[in-house]
Design a protein that fits this description.
The chain is an alpha+beta fold. The chain has helices at residues 2-14, 18-29, 34-41, 47-86, 106-120, 134-137, 148-152, 177-186, 225-240, 293-298, 315-323, 336-342; strands at 124-125, 131-133, 169-171, 190-199, 210-220, 247-254, 257-268, 275-276, 281-291, 307-314. Strands 1, 4, 5, 6, 7, 8, 9 and 10 form an eight-stranded mixed beta sheet that branches. Strand 7 and strand 8 (275-276) form a beta hairpin. The chain is elongated, with a radius of gyration of 37 Å. It binds phenylalanine.
Length: 358
């Protein structure tokens, strides 16, 4: 019995694969294996001999079986280790260029660029629903029911069945409702941007019923118009990838900011191409101002303690300007030729250090 044990435990220890192990199992503890043959000899023994040999044989069988199980597990572990060693993949390798058929839409690209720039300035990205109540879209932003701004914005109202007493919902006409939602959610101090789609009933070469804005909001105890100006200048320089830009703040009016300013960029259209930072033309790119105290209060924050600035930038407009795209409507035609021409490599994430648009 000791010989059997030494023989099989030795074989098991040396087995290099599962097939060998199975062979050992069959010849040791299989139905016609050596241990079974020994068991058959029990019949010829005296009862006294049997009482010693029987349990000993069973113990031997158990020992061989557990050695088999342990070895099987060890072989599986080794096989897995070997696979992990041999089947590795360098996920940092570039993809095969011929596979890159899809492209990133210019709106998505510009959105990423804008996000990268404002992230560097300490703004985080906030979101809000595209279907919102008229309270968030208007009232909370100091645009009461009778205000002409409601009509000016060509609002899409959601249909309401007769007797429906839920608050009226609209397709948001701007990203400004996210100012209120962010204040409610995060309190002050606060620095957020919110890029996203907005809707107005309008359609021509520079207007589509759905377009994109990026809202900005910064609230703190010591924020002034000077901070707004600096942030916007930094943004425009980084976005157009030029060292110098001249901005013009034009007095304007929005119900939710006081004072309000629209911002133009000095540019030239010489030779039909747009150059930012030189020339005698001015290009209107955004609305901005110091957040109205009523708006801060509507967001649940004390306007006696906190103040700040907000801005709303037209993303589609910026994309047209930066990438020389003449007609806004083509953005949303889903024409593959247009998408291939104006699309961006989807793996080139815009970063300030790596370059925004290269
Ligand atoms: N919501 C304004 C618009 O859509 C833009 C804006 C945002 C102006 C924030 C001032 C402050 O025209």
């Amino acid at each position: 019995m000791d010989d059997l044990k030494a023989k099989y435990l030795g074989q098991i220890a040396e087995a290099a694969d599962e097939a060998t192990l199975e062979g050992i199992r069959v010849s040791a503890v299989g139905k016609k294996g050596e241990v079974a043959l020994k068991m058959r000899e029990l019949g010829k023994m005296t009862p006294e001999e049997r009482q010693i040999a029987g349990p000993a044989l069973n113990a031997l069988k158990d020992e061989i079986n557990s050695a088999l199980v342990a070895k099987k597990a060890a072989l599986a572990d080794a096989a897995l280790d070997e696979r992990l060693r041999s089947e590795w993949l360098d996920v940092t390798l570039p993809t095969r260029p011929q596979r890159r058929t899809g492209t990133l839409h210019p709106i998505g690209q510009v959105q990423e660029e804008i996000t990268a720039i404002f992230a560097e300035l300490g703004f985080s990205v906030a979101e809000g629903p595209r279907i919102d109540t008229d309270w968030y879209n208007f009232d909370a932003l100091n645009i009461p029911g009778h205000h002409p701004a409601r009509a000016e914005m060509d609002t899409f109202y959601m249909h309401r069945a007769e007797g429906d007493d839920r608050p009226p919902h609209v397709l948001r006409t701007h990203t400004s409702p996210v100012q209120i939602r962010s204040m409610e959610k995060m309190g002050a101090p606060l620095r957020i941007i919110c890029p996203g789609g907005v809707y107005r009933a309008d359609y021509d070469q520079t207007h589509t019923p759905m377009f994109h804005q990026v809202e900005g909001l910064a609230l703190d105890k010591d924020i002034s118009m000077a901070n707004l100006k600096w942030v916007l200048e930094e943004f425009v320089k980084a976005f157009f990838e030029v060292d110098d830009v001249e901005l013009r703040f034009r007095a304007s009016h929005f119900p939710f900011t006081e004072p309000s300013a629209e911002v133009d960029i000095r540019c030239s259209w010489e030779g039909g191409t747009l150059k930012v930072g030189e020339g005698d033309d001015w290009l209107e790119v955004l609305g901005s101002g110091m957040v109205h105290p009523k708006v801060i209060a509507a967001g649940g924050i004390d306007p006696e303690v906190y103040q700040g600035f907000a801005f709303g930038i037209g993303i589609d407009r910026l994309a047209m300007l930066k990438y020389g795209i003449p007609d806004l409507r083509a953005f949303f035609d889903s024409d593959l030729r247009w998408l291939r021409h104006y699309g961006f490599q989807c793996l080139d994430m815009p970063t300030l250090h790596g370059g925004l648009s290269r």
